[in-house]
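Q: I'm writing a short explainer about Holliday junction branch migration complex subunit RuvA for a general audience and would like to include a description of its predicted shape. Could you first generate the structure from this sequence?
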Amino acid sequence: MITYVKGLLTTVEDDSVTIETQGVGYEILCANPLHFQSERHKEVKVHTYHYIREDQQLLFGFKKKEDKLLFAKLLNVSGIGPKGALAILGTVSVPEFVSAIEQEDEKYLTRFPGVGKKTARQMILDLKGKLIVWLPEEENEDSLFYQEDTAAKDKRVHIEEALEALKALGYSDRELKTVHSELVKSKQGQVDDLVRKGLQLLMKS
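A: Of course. Here's the predicted structure. Afterward I'll give you a sentence or two in plain language.
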């Protein structure tokens, strides 16, 4: 799985950017490629989601890691594909989107391209309570999540990244659920270590 690409930003197109690293140019689809315009011909680091299907492999890119993680969450919602997820991220900030999910604001969610009432309700059902890591702290002052220390918060994010990496390797959501609790208990904190731990657990099951 390609988790990020770091190199020379050579091209900015309407829907993608190209980054050259070690003589290889990576085309990366983005929600707002023009956000990278000021960094043309400079070295940049883009967080990427490696989308793999039988008939295609695509790289989707994001300036912020939280955008990438939300993109991955959206892909798990029935009715939301990569284009739809990218369109959402191109029109709203992550905290605003999460706030709408937590408040069950269907009217707000149906403003996004291709999102009707049924899909909005599905997003709320699938995502509510799972994204509060990206809400401003003052909106969650009563939440247990914000009583955790920084290390605990970081581990939550790292576990999500590790699970997405394992999913990209072909493991199903059902299989990943069996190892999630073990990863939470694990003393491992870095993404690579958590991926290795997850693979060990999956191979034993």
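A: For your explainer, you could say: Confidence is low (pLDDT under 50) at residues 138-149.
Q: Perfect, that's easy to follow.
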